[in-house]
Structures are given as C-alpha cells and as structure tokens.
Automatic annotation (TrEMBL):
This is DNA helicase RecQ. Its cofactor is Zn(2+); Mg(2+). Gene3D superfamilies: HRDC domain, P-loop containing nucleotide triphosphate hydrolases, Winged helix-like DNA-binding domain superfamily/Winged helix DNA-binding domain. Residues 26-194 form the Helicase ATP-binding domain. Residues 218-362 form the Helicase C-terminal domain. One of its GO terms (cellular component) is bacterial nucleoid. It holds the Pfam family Helicase_C.
Length: 519
C-alpha cells in the first residue's frame, strides 16, 4: 500500500515525499477506516483523501461547501490526469446529467459535491447504484453551530454513515479548538474514527500586535515595510474596506477592495487579479479568503479585532503558505472591543450563544494583551503546548516593559465613578487630562475632582491604561447601552489601595515604526 501511495504521490502529483501525517492518514483511509483530520490551512489536507480515492476502487465523493474551491481543485486534478468532476448549482442540467452518467459508469476518480446536492434524494439514489471509494467531508467545522461557517446541511451528513456503513469517511478541518473538535466527532458520528491532529504552528509567520490610535496612519507605516508584496488587509466594515483601499492606492500600492456589497463580477475580477498578479494588496472583510490558495501572501494585516482566536488564526494562516517569512499584524484598541461587545449583545442570538461569543472575544483580547510569547498563547488556545518562547513574535523579539500603574488606575477608576459610570474612554481621558471642550463643560466635568489629575500621561498612554483595565476586568463595558465604562467587583480593591496594578508600557509611535518590516 505504502509503495503504491508513494508512486501516486510522485507520478501523479509530482511531490517527492509526504508531509507530516499525510502518509499515515492515506494508509489508514485507503485501508477502509474512518479518520478525523485536523491540519492547519496549507498543511496539505487534500492529498489525504485524493490519494486514497485513487488507491481504492470506485469514486471518491468529496463534500465541500466552497464552490470556487471545488472548481479550482477539479481543474488542478484534471491537469494531473485525474478524472475529477464537480456538481453544484453553477452547472446546467445537461452537464450535471452527463457527470452523473460518468459516475454510474465508473469513469470518475473524484467527484466534488455541494452538501445540498449530495443530500438530494436523486443524488443519494444515484450513489446507491455507484461504486464509492470513500466519502471526504471537507471543512468539517461547518457542522458546528458555534463556528462562523455553520452549514445546516452538514448536520445531515450522518446519512452517509447510516446508508453506507462500510465505506470509509474522512472529515477534515483547519479549525481545531477542542470543543469544535468534539462537536465534529459527535455530529458526524465519527467518535470511533482515528484522529490525526497536526501541529498548528506556522513557524514562518511572525505575529505582531500594536495598540490602535490612528489605524490608518499605523497601517501606512506598516505597509511601508512591505512595498511590492502581496498581502491581505482585513477590516470589519465595507465602508472601512473602501476607505482603506483608497488610502493605500494614494500611497502607490495596488490595493483592491473585496466585500459582499460589491458586484459579484467586480469581486471575481479583484480576486483573480490578486491570485494571478504580484504585489497586490487585497483589502477585504472576512468574506474574502476562505479557500484562497495563494502561496506567496507576505502579510495579513488586521485593522480591526477579529471575533475569535480561531477566526484570527484562519485569516493570518493565509500568509506564508510557501514557507517563506510572513507577517501577521494586528492593530487593536478599546473601541474595537466595545463595538464587538455591542454587536454580541445586540444580536438576535440566544443567551448560550452570546455567552460563548463573549468568551471567544475575551480570549482574543487576552491574546492581544498578553506579555507572553504570542505563539504560545495562540497554540494553547488549540490545546497545543509550545514548550519554549518562539523567538518570532513581537513579545519574544522585544519583551514588553511593565510599569506600576496603580496610581494611574486609581485615577482612571475614580474618574469613571465620579462621572457616573456611563462615559466612554475618550471622554474620560479628556477629563483626566483636563481638556477644555464643549462636552466636558456641558456635563460639568471640569468641576470633578479628577479633572486634570492625569496630565502626566499623554492620551496614547491613557488609552493603553483604559484598554488594559477592561482586559483585566477592572472595568467593564456597558455593551447593552452606549458602551460606557463601569466599575467591576474587582475595581474596589484597586480604589481602596489594596491591589497594585502592573500594566504593559505602550510603545511610543516612533518605536512602533522602527519595529515594522523585517527585523
Ligand atoms: P489545505 O487544504 O490543508 O489548506 P492543500 O491540500 O491545499 O492544503 O495543500 C496546500 C499546498 O501544499 C498545496 O499547494 C499542495 O499542492 C501542497 N502540498 C500538499 N502536500 C504536499 C507534499 N506532500 N509535498 C509538497 N507539497 C504539498
Ligand atoms: Zn514568541
């Protein structure tokens, strides 16, 4: 078996050897066993079902939710001489019927199908009459209600096991936090399947997180160290995508926007250019990227906070698939946290879901605020231990300095308290710094005892204080209301002088700039 698998790998796919767990997985599935494969993006999941499909008699049926990806894969396979087809809503009836006939006639090695198509009674009965090598369930995390890619039809895929108990199934995903992993196994009835968990480390990606104070200017500084490179810049809103793309174009960068509000045609054209040309920067909402296989993306920049660590990992994972150095840059501020918290509270979701989303956001904020090695924190969230600090993240390269912020924290907390626990950080910082403006006078905040007591720190430093106090649960965001800040249970000890507060020193802008680009 092994030698035949290697022959196929070399002769059909043109690769000298298997990577990581691939060989073990191929053998396991080719032998007729079920598998649950957790491998990072770019790890090489496709071969894990493509080769067993070629080794076994019959056609490998691949369930995939991504139409664009299906087409790419099938095209690539055909060029290698593999008899591959796909069935989805983009095909006309005649073509689809033709493909179904080939399947029945045993003329296909691999058939990619969209889940809704697979589950249609007509197609299931066709499968009854065909010879099936295996079922591959790609993007298996779509079965999880908690992920952002939930697909209802994935829940019904257990029918494959019920109707064809002896045909091996292989489910694959790049999302692998332990709860999702458990849910996949349970929902797809793969509890008995052997699990193949690869390391999720992407050693060539350098992680870098900066405090946001003028996102667009900071992005400009960052991009200056990456001129001429392909990259992706993620923004939360469509409007911001447009604006950011314009800013970059003014800088002489070939930047293209991508979001769901653009014409399908424009989107497709921009995507094509990104894939084919060098040095294009795609500015996008998270709608962009699922299934994008461009090996030489040199950086992924986040202008806004993603919603979860898994999302962040997936998005940053699009950088450096060729193994060459790449950078993941994230610019985050308290404003993002407030906005995302409000989005969670104001959503239609049930309480259980909201609780989960709050937890996910908190762990992402924890990642942003950590003074530990970022890779260690990132991988730990996937249940993976990374023994030593990595030496390739901002915290490893430039260890954070801390300062005793107890007095500053006391000033901040008492300013929150005295102004009535309903204002946001921007206003509070103005009060602390003794700024004379309309709003402050309107509320009579120039009369507060905390007015002007914080002129020893600049606004940037204060932003860092407030953001870190929220992250440390010494302040909380009133996310159901206007996003004002309130004291928490824990704040009292600080106000009473019973608890010291050590915070990370925010970098002056100049030093942040110096750290951009390749060190
Ligand atoms: P995933 O689906 O896990 O994101 P892919 O299956 O698309 O990853 O593979 C990512 C890239 O790695 C592809 O360009 C693929 O051709 C390449 N690749 C996969 N396995 C090998 C291998 N054994 N040797 C060399 N290249 C490989
Ligand atoms: Zn590190």
């Amino acid at each position: 078996m092994t030698t035949r698998a290697r022959e196929l790998l070399q002769n059909v796919f043109g690769f000298p050897g298997f990577r990581g767990e691939q060989e073990a997985i191929v053998e396991h599935v080719a032998d007729g066993n079920d598998a649950l494969v957790l491998m990072p993006t770019g790890g090489g999941k496709s071969l894990c079902y493509q080769i067993p499909a070629l080794l076994r008699e019959g056609c490998g049926i691949v369930v995939s939710p991504l139409i664009a990806l299906m087409q790419d894969q099938v095209e690539a396979l055909r060029q290698l001489g593999v008899r591959a087809e796909y069935l989805n809503s983009t095909l006309d009836a005649g073509t689809a019927a033709q493909i179904e006939r080939s399947l029945l006639a045993g003329e296909l090695d691999l058939l990619y199908v969209a889940p809704e198509r697979l589950l249609s009674p007509g197609f299931l009965s066709l499968l009854e009459r065909s010879r099936i090598a295996l079922f591959a369930i790609d993007e298996a995390h779509c079965v999880s209600q908690w992920g952002h890619d939930f697909r209802r039809e994935y829940r019904e895929l257990t029918i494959l096991h019920e109707r064809w108990p002896s045909i091996p199934r292989i489910a694959l995903t790049a999302t692998a936090d332990p709860p999702t992993q458990r849910e996949i196994a349970e929902r797809l009835q793969l509890e008995q399947a052997q699990r193949f968990v690869s390391s999720f480390d992407r050693p060539n990606i350098r992680y870098n997180v900066v405090q946001k104070d003028n996102g667009r200017r900071q992005l400009r500084d960052f991009i200056a160290g990456h001129m001429g490179e392909s990259g992706i810049v993620y923004c939360l809103s469509r409007k911001k995508v447009e604006k950011t793309a314009e800013t970059l174009v003014e800088l002489g960068v070939t930047a293209l926007p991508y979001h769901a509000g653009l014409d399908a045609e424009v989107r497709a054209r921009n995507q094509r250019r990104f894939l084919r040309e060098d040095g294009i920067v795609m500015v996008a909402t998270i709608a962009f990227g699922m299934g994008i296989d461009k090996p030489d993306v040199r950086f992924v920049a986040h202008m806004d906070l993603p919603k979860s660590i898994e999302g962040y990992y997936q998005e940053t994972g699009r950088a450096g698939r060729d193994g060459e150095p790449a950078e993941a840059w994230l610019c985050h501020g308290l404003g993002d946290v407030v906005l995302l918290k409000q989005m969670i509270e104001n959503s239609e979701a049930g309480e259980e879901r909201k609780r989960l989303e709050r937890r996910k956001l908190d762990s992402l904020v924890g990642y942003c605020e950590t003074m530990q090695c970022r890779r260690q924190v990132l991988l730990a969230s996937f249940g993976e231990a990374y023994p030593e600090p990595c030496g390739n993240c901002d915290n490893c390269l430039h260890p954070a300095e801390t300062w005793d912020a107890t007095v500053a924290a006391q000033k901040a907390l008492s300013c929150v308290y005295r102004s009535g626990q309903r204002f946001g950080a921007m206003h509070l910082i103005d009060v602390l710094r003794g700024v004379d403006n309309e709003r402050i006078r309107q509320f009579g905040h120039d009369q507060l005892s905390t007015f002007g007591v914080g002129h020893d720190l600049d606004a940037r430093a204060w932003r860092g204080v407030f953001r870190q106090l929220v992250a440390a649960d010494l302040l909380e965001v009133d996310a159901e209301g206007y996003g004002g800040l309130r004291l928490t249970e824990a704040s009292r000890a600080v106000l009473r002088g019973e608890r010291a507060v050590m915070l990370r020193k925010e970098l002056p802008r100049k030093r942040e700039r110096e750290r951009n680009g390749r060190a």
